[in-house]
Amino acid sequence: MPIYNAPLKDMEFILNDVFKADEFWQNTENLAHLDMATANAILEEMAKFSKNVILDLNRSADEEGGAQFNQGVVTTPKGFKEAFQQFADGGWIGLGANEAFGGQGMPKMLTVLADEMIWSTNPSFMLYPLLTVGAGMAIDQAASEEQKATYLPKFYTGEWSGTMCLTEPHSGTDLGIIKTKAEPNADGSYNITGTKIFITSGEHDLCENIIHLVLAKTPDAPAGSRGISLFIVPKFLVNEDGSLGERNTLGAGSIEHKMGIKGSATCVMNFDAAKGFLVGKENQGLAAMFIMMNYERLSMGIQGIGASEYAYQNAAQYATDRLQGRSATGVKSPEKPADSILVHGDVRRMLLNVRANNEASRAFAVYVGQQLDITKFSNDAEAVRKANDRVALLTPIAKAYLTDKALDSALEAQMCFGGHGYIREWGMEQCIRDLRISQIYEGTNGVQAIDLIGRKTIKSNGAFIAEYIAEIREFAASMNDALSIKAATLDVCHQVEALTQFIIKQAKSNPDFSNAVAVDYLHAVGLLSFTYMFARIAQAAQAKPESFYQNKLVLAQYYVAKVLPDLAARVQRIQAGAELVMQLPEDYFTAQA
Amino acid sequence: MPIYNAPLKDMEFILNDVFKADEFWQNTENLAHLDMATANAILEEMAKFSKNVILDLNRSADEEGGAQFNQGVVTTPKGFKEAFQQFADGGWIGLGANEAFGGQGMPKMLTVLADEMIWSTNPSFMLYPLLTVGAGMAIDQAASEEQKATYLPKFYTGEWSGTMCLTEPHSGTDLGIIKTKAEPNADGSYNITGTKIFITSGEHDLCENIIHLVLAKTPDAPAGSRGISLFIVPKFLVNEDGSLGERNTLGAGSIEHKMGIKGSATCVMNFDAAKGFLVGKENQGLAAMFIMMNYERLSMGIQGIGASEYAYQNAAQYATDRLQGRSATGVKSPEKPADSILVHGDVRRMLLNVRANNEASRAFAVYVGQQLDITKFSNDAEAVRKANDRVALLTPIAKAYLTDKALDSALEAQMCFGGHGYIREWGMEQCIRDLRISQIYEGTNGVQAIDLIGRKTIKSNGAFIAEYIAEIREFAASMNDALSIKAATLDVCHQVEALTQFIIKQAKSNPDFSNAVAVDYLHAVGLLSFTYMFARIAQAAQAKPESFYQNKLVLAQYYVAKVLPDLAARVQRIQAGAELVMQLPEDYFTAQA
């Protein structure tokens, strides 16, 4: 059976040593109640829950075929209901949510670590509270006080859950062409009519009510994405006293049969003049929904870390136990029929790639979490402005680069198992199937890359990335020259800076340029970010003699030697431009060959 | 539903224009009966069979859960039996096999193309005849005349099938530690006892008898891989008149539940003093089994091409049909609500990566097929020697590089579908699950890489690769200077040559070096090979004005600009050496973090 032990020591190292969380919290007015001891206690509790409650349910849910649909009713896999109740009772749903409505107000740099453990042990389970938390965030920031008071407390007790309803059969990335209609009623409510697809947790049996956040167009709305409004559309209407009223005219038409995350119900939702309530103002729905989308996008990155960590732990254990062949430098275990496959450089290469990915990714998630905490909790306007820009820049990296690297990593971990990695019982193949969606949903990774290169880079004339590189340079300059990653960090800064300038210039003369090189640029900025994380890790570890810390210096060197070379390929591809990408006619692609 | 149309025009181009098959066949005594018209007719027939008979069975077999096991009996998915009968009746099993025993004696450069179509449309189905063909090859080359006469004709009629039984629970890559025993009987037969796992087609209902080729150790055999013998162990013993006799004491204990290729029965096989017959001499079993293994390894590469081609065709069609967003250079389809996603550079980038992979891979498979044909059919001893060396060098590339690139490609094709790629009904997720095994079985891709860098390169002091590079240089020198790929080809030759010299030197002082950099070297030689293939494609296409040919010149340029840059990363990684890979102690990998 697959194993999992939360990497608590690494988590504390990242929080405490690398990002000096204690100091940050103490110096931030609204976080001064939190200290590392409390943070560690929270992480330890989540470590238990993830290992003892949901890990086993991950395999069983997949084996039994996942969520089941029968005439509009969705049944979640065995054990999910009890686990969800326990999760809700533990206060986990509202861990990072507004205390005024029953949340616990914990900072993001802590919640990303708690989330990682759930993503490691049961991604299908994680999706049920995840959408609720996201919907809560959107309501908290964009809805009326009455709406907040009605819905948020029920979210955080786990009595009700949330969804986001964006996609339609013909409309995914291009939300400007949605067809779902919202017709105003005399009482201020709207009648919502349309079909939404790929609705995570659209229907299930974990909660007594489900609150859908639905994008729709009012009758006179402007065309395109400027004419989209956001509505709260509850499964059961809510009476004035907060009790459940009549069933709304909406329901699940079917659930999807998917490659993975089978325990998560992915629903087709039909709205048939269902009663909905406007959130904020008409035609401003997309901005409100993007509050939720940006939260989910960071979460997808954490899904990647979680899967990659789980894959690593299982592969490292398998490689340690599996005896096969002998070391090239002489027999290592003469008492055994063969040496552990850890004697083979190729197995180590794979494991170190995954390990390096996990440690850099985790640091990066905490870093972005800290930036989000600054935007939310700081009173320093300039710090908030900078952090907002940083989050805008790095959200596509968190979503797309982390999940791209996570899939690479999980595939390498699976390969350590040889044929056994392909067999269901070892859990690795499920890990990959479950993980794959993270690159696709909440905006494909290609869409993230286009966001990074377009809205976040070219549009600001490179201001966001320039400020990020300045921070990295300043940090590197403060480092001990003896750390070899210092020079590598400064070199990457130089390369990505030059690349950015090249891109901005090319984009001016060729509108197709940015889209054609977007993914390579995303990976270049990802490599810059992970190098920066290893610089911070090395700086934090250098003075400590224990092997736990000194090994991090080796891993940082490994990263520079063996992972960072990907940058050379990315730079060459970007320099090769867009012409060859765009040159062939459309019918070339499907012509009979 | 997924689509597939065999790329017959491309196949003819590769055979006829690039590798001048007609000329080669006419000048090769034992192939002079074959011409392009016959070859095309064979490929057209297979195109029909793959599209009309087995394509639909691919999805249905997966949906119904694949092969079923019940008390030692394996039932193949619905329709497999009828399709297999049709396949056998068409003479397809023995297409490339010895005519003396009922085969059709067709050259490999043709059969690789027929095989590709089956791999495209139903990889689980393909595995049933595949193992038979491999077993037939091993018997044909290593067994006695009597054994050949007994088993081979039944293989090619499809009455009997074959397996290869190597792996045991504790013994995969390291066959030296197998435990299966072969005890000699007075009548010259042996009693075989042991458990073999991961036995493809070990038990099934398609044929009346199953002939297992089993590796086992005789009582006094030397330790390790020098003490392994090969045995024919039939499910039903064969009477002297060729009719079926008593049931042998062997059987399937269970079948594996796998990530993919669910229609293929992967069996645990228990041999309980089962009667077996020695093939060749005692202790020389591994060499005989490697006849089969090397055949299967090239086949795995073709599995990769097949999957990638299938993925491409479906993704290109989806991208053409899917309307989303508008072109950056202005609306392209004003009459539609949005443009086809082919207007976006990132979508084209993905499709062109896949297309470039398919065309280079296919050419490479035909190239290796031609080398195999020279070894088999040529009377020129020096040509045979060179071709043998070339096949030895390139078999790991065919197996591992082609399947690595195929998975990358299938993942990019899946991504073109957005969320729809994750849903079962589009077939893309099954394609990836089915394909993934190709990187793992028949020796993991890491093991292939170690074979390439060790036995095939360092051991020969670089002789094989030097001869290959000399051929490529000679070809490039003959090319028109106006073809930009000419310079790129010469440059890659130079880089891989220098890299090889560096590796041979480093390996002398560090026994761990080659294993640690093996996969990067495999990819470097793969990039060299694909560049060479595009050089040959470009040379063959250049003088022909039709867009079919001229577009190939664009694709070759695309390859150099956008795929070949990976070489820079591979070179840097190899130059970074093995030290950081090997430095950390074994317990680092599993220490609680």
TrEMBL record, chains A, B:
In the record, the note on similarity to other proteins reads: Belongs to the acyl-CoA dehydrogenase family.
Domain Acetyl-CoA dehydrogenase-like C-terminal, first and last residues per copy: 469-585
Catalytic activity, per the record? 3-(methylsulfanyl)propanoyl-CoA + oxidized [electron-transfer flavoprotein] + H(+) = 3-(methylsulfanyl)acryloyl-CoA + reduced [electron-transfer flavoprotein]
What keywords appear on the UniProt entry? FAD, Flavoprotein, Oxidoreductase
Identify the cofactor(s): FAD
Protein name per Swiss-Prot or TrEMBL:
3-methylmercaptopropionyl-CoA dehydrogenase
Q: Could you tell me which residue ranges the Acyl-CoA oxidase/dehydrogenase middle domain spans?
A: 164-272
- Where does the Acyl-CoA dehydrogenase/oxidase C-terminal domain lie? 283-450
Q: List, alphabetically, the PANTHER family matched.
A: ACYL-COA DEHYDROGENASE, BROAD-SPECIFICITY LINEAR ACYL-COA DEHYDROGENASE FADE5
Annotated GO MF terms: flavin adenine dinucleotide binding; oxidoreductase activity, acting on the CH-CH group of donors
> Which InterPro entries does the protein's record reference?
Acyl-CoA_dh-like_C_dom, Acyl-CoA_Oxase/DH_mid-dom, Acyl-CoA_Oxase/DH_mid-dom_sf, AcylCo_DH-like_C, AcylCo_DH/oxidase_C, AcylCoA_DH/ox_N, AcylCoA_DH/ox_N_sf, AcylCoA_DH/oxidase_NM_dom_sf
According to its UniProt entry, what is the function of this protein? Answer: Involved in the assimilation of dimethylsulphoniopropionate (DMSP), an important compound in the fixation of carbon in marine phytoplankton, by mediating the conversion of 3-(methylthio)propanoyl-CoA (MMPA-CoA) to 3-(methylthio)acryloyl-CoA (MTA-CoA).
Q: Which domain of life is it from?
A: Bacteria
EC number, UniProt record: 1.3.99.41
Start and end of every Acyl-CoA dehydrogenase/oxidase N-terminal domain? 40-159
